[in-house]
Every structure is written in C-alpha cells, then in structure tokens.
Design a protein that fits this description.
Number of helices: 1
Strand order of the largest sheet: 1-2-3
Strand content: 25-35%
Oligomer: single chain
Order of helices and strands: EEEHEEEEE
Helix content: under 10%
Number of strands: 8
Radius of gyration: 22 Å
Number of domains: 2
C-alpha cells in the first residue's frame, strides 16, 4: 500500500482513510483541516485519488534587489543575477520573492 502524501491545503500529514456510516465506501480525511476526498469502494482507489491531489510546490526563494545603473537596468537579482529594468516584488527570471530575507 502506498504512503499518503501531505494535505495539499494545510500541509498536514495526519490523514485517515475512513469508511462511510454504512461501511459501503471509503474516503480520505485530513485531521488538520477537515478536507475529504475520493469516495470509492476500494481503499486503494481512495489513496491514489488523495495522492494525485498534492501539487508539486518548490520552496519559496527569497532575495533582494541590488541596485545598479547600467543602461536601462535598475537592479540585479541576488539569487540568479538577472538584470531588471524594474524592482518588482518578484524576480521575473527565477521567481525569488524580493523581501530581503
């Protein structure tokens, strides 16, 4: 049997596979946030449905803009080195959040 992945909504790992009140079908339930998924007659189908719902998310990169004055460029990303004409909240190249952390 496959291991259950964390909840895609709260990130919790306390996930149960339960039966309905009549004991006729199975479903998954997150004890962290209460979300449920995958009513089916087999436990394996429910587990597969739960695991397919988890998105692949990369950790947030944090960076800061390094001010420069070269032609039309105003800043350099501390994470990837991309030159940018504006100092936005995120680097358009690597996606780093420019919050200086």
């Amino acid at each position: 049997m496959e291991k259950l992945k964390p909840c895609p909504f709260c990130g919790g790992s306390d996930i149960d596979i339960r039966t309905d009140d009549a004991g006729l079908s199975w479903y998954s339930f997150c004890n962290g946030c209460g979300v449920s998924c995958g009513y089916s007659i087999t436990k394996d189908d429910v587990m597969n449905a739960w695991n397919m719902r988890v998105p692949t998310i990369e950790p947030v990169k944090h960076g800061k803009w390094i001010e420069i004055d070269i032609k039309d460029y105003k800043a350099l990303c501390s994470e990837c080195g991309t030159w940018s004409p504006v100092m936005g909240k995120f680097c358009p190249e690597c996606g780093a959040r420019m919050d200086g952390e």
